[in-house]
Amino acid sequence: MRTCGIAIIGLGLMGCSALHSLARRGADVLGFDPLPIGEARGSSHGSCRVYRRFNFESKAYTELSDRAFAGWQALAAASGKIILKPCPVLEAGPPSSKLVAASRAAAMREGAIGGPANGAEANAAFAAFNLPVDWDVVVQESGGILMAEAALQAFREGLEHRIIRAAARITPTPAGIRITTPDEEVMAEQVIVAAGPWIANLVPGLAPHLTVTRQAVGWFRPAKPETVRHGAFPIFILEGSRGMIYGFPDFEGRGVKAAQHDHGPVAGPDQWGPPPFDDELEPVSATLGELIPGAVGPIVDRDICLYTNTRRADVRLDEGNEFIIDRLPGDNRIMVASPCSGHGAKFASAIGAMLADMALDRQAEAPAAFRLDRFSGFSGC
Fold this sequence. Notes:
alpha/beta, FAD/NAD(P)-binding domain, 2 domains, eight-stranded mixed β-sheet, seven-stranded mixed β-sheet, 9 helices, 27% strand
């Protein structure tokens, strides 16, 4: 039976980042994943994700964002690839919007506030917008477009010999963690499980604390292409009457990518199809038509993303919609990484390094905000 020091189950952005970090530190590590880069499944598929330095979801994120930014810069320098395209992030909502207030507060703590502050100023700065003039607005100049597929390729570069292209299951034994694939068994001293929406199938006890939802994504042929090109138009997150809508400038010549950030219908981990129907994308197209008329147009492409979010925590209270980074209570040889929640991708370079720290130092712990003991199902272990 083959052996290794650390096995990683799932090689999306989190798993690949951990593989890259561990291999660079000389660890005996193997990664397992049946999906090739570019496969239209998995939480990390597709070309791009949003990078925000300041995040309305949690105060815990700014330090993580800064560490991730340094990680993306280092990955770009080492690989020669473009990993993070600079692009401002504009967040907007009705007066007293909690979204805008939280992001503005995070930016103000760092003394990094500026740009349009209301709808009228945003409309003047970016011709594609038609925001209500009294809306609250905050613009982060330190944002960017994370080139997700390029990052995956860079993380894996030179590590093909450490990657086993197969689905895997884990079985704890006194001698180690047995990794079983259709073709072989491998015994590992430790395991990092970073399997996206499939994670609850691999780690007992997680299922009651996680929800997987189907998220519809569309690409829209813009009515006024010159107003939504990269360099003239920001990433946007809008808290409108049809929910929270986010999107990108047309930086690929493919159209404006946009989606609803609010949770879609509950789904299983293998429910990637069919492509989103027009009614699933209606809140997005209607919001673009109302608030960004320069971006709206026919849907030219569509995709499904699965979010895996935590449910509300009941020990150290939080509202849920979060992720998990922790050792499994009761067996610290198993680490869990589930930042596939729709806002975790931008942190992947930092989270991979954090997982490597935990694997190489049994005393290292993840931040309390992400640990399993905030759930009563794990707090007593």
